[in-house]
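Try this one yourself first.
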């Protein structure tokens, strides 16, 4: 049974460590949990300022009974163990049983859609949130989207996230696992789901970046799912890219290879081969981010019948942004700032202006640009 209000599951990973660091900033006591206590302890020793944090390390098996027993007594679980398509539902089920808030960092739409249908009402009945996609590629973009929707009459959103940096081992594994769910990667057109064509890139230009970048649907993105039942929104598309064009071309080429050579294989064999491909591209832990290198531009363009609106958010150190989003969200939930329950986004649960303010407090985002 947890004796701390927050549990970080997957604390030995790159993102998990950053969540722990951000929780320390909020002075929130937490449990750093994982399947190997020695690895978690070693990871915690590398967290800046950890000596001032109130935390403990717990080893736990990845099954519903063990996780539910650990989560019982906590208030919020921050899950960073992916690919979520493979490992996420176990953690969601454990949170549902323990009656605690659940949040994670995924953008894997099939996983999100499946847990929404299976567990959304359970979390709602308990007054708890089921919130995936609390992370840099999704939350700042959602803040921009809700800012655009403050203009009455906007019903169409085109959203792009452009990052300069390197995906972590876990993110790389999730990227390739999404090849298996390309038939669920959707955007909204006329209020209906439309599946993105697989293995295709799209040329985009972000504000302030005159050179075009190669973007990808990245599983569809979480905005179309979160806004699917918003009566203001009829059309919504979301694309993402890294400014490393070679990497993006590689992603498109590897998805083409998956469609032609791997898709017909048994699912487990597909998983193993995709895992091996991901390890070739990102085999280990990347270095800590550098604000002079690792930057993001999130841009949402909105249109209505005769109105337009846009919002651009510029930030740096995207994985640190993820840690701040997770910790700020946990802090709001523990403090009782909660507008929604059940399956919902960060902004739907606590407000986009409130989340923007927290990211501005840490200096990751300055003023946003609107038009």
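Now uncover the answer:
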């Amino acid at each position: 049974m947890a004796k701390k209000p927050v549990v970080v599951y997957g604390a030995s990973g790159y993102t998990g460590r950053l969540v722990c660091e951000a929780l320390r900033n909020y002075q929130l006591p937490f449990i750093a949990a994982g399947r190997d206590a020695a690895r978690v302890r070693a990871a915690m020793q590398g967290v800046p300022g950890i000596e001032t944090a109130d935390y403990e390390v717990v080893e736990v098996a990845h099954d519903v009974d063990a996780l539910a027993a650990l989560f019982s007594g906590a208030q919020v679980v921050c899950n960073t163990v992916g690919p979520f398509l493979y490992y996420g539902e176990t953690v969601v089920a454990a949170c549902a049983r323990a009656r605690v808030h659940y949040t994670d960092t995924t953008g894997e739409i099939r996983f999100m859609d499946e847990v929404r249908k299976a567990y959304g009402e359970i979390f709602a009945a308990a007054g708890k949130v089921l919130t995936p996609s609390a992370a840099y590629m999704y939350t700042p973009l959602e803040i921009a989207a809700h800012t655009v929707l403050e203009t009455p009459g906007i019903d169409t959103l085109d959203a792009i996230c452009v990052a300069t940096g390197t995906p972590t081992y876990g993110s790389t594994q999730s990227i390739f696992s999404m090849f298996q769910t390309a038939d669920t990667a959707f955007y909204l057109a006329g209020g209906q789901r439309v599946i993105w064509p697989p293995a295709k890139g799209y040329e985009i230009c972000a504000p302030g970046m005159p050179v075009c970048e190669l973007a990808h649907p990245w599983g569809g993105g979480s905005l179309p799912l979160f806004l699917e039942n918003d009566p203001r929104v009829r059309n919504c598309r979301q694309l993402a890219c890294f400014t490393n064009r070679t990497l993006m071309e590689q992603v498109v080429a590897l998805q083409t290879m998956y469609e032609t050579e791997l898709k017909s294989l048994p699912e487990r064999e597909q998983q193993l081969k995709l895992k091996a491909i991901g390890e070739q591209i990102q085999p280990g832990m990347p270095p800590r981010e550098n604000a002079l290198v690792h930057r993001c531009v999130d841009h949402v363009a909105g249109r209505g019948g005769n109105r337009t609106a846009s919002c651009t958010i510029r930030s740096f150190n995207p994985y640190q942004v993820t840690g701040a989003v997770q910790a700020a969200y946990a802090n709001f939930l523990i403090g009782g700032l909660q507008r929604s329950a059940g399956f919902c986004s960060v902004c739907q649960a606590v407000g986009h202006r409130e989340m923007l303010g927290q990211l501005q407090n840490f200096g990751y985002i300055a003023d946003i640009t609107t038009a």
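Discussion: The longest strand covers residues 156-164. The first helix runs from residue 14 to 25.
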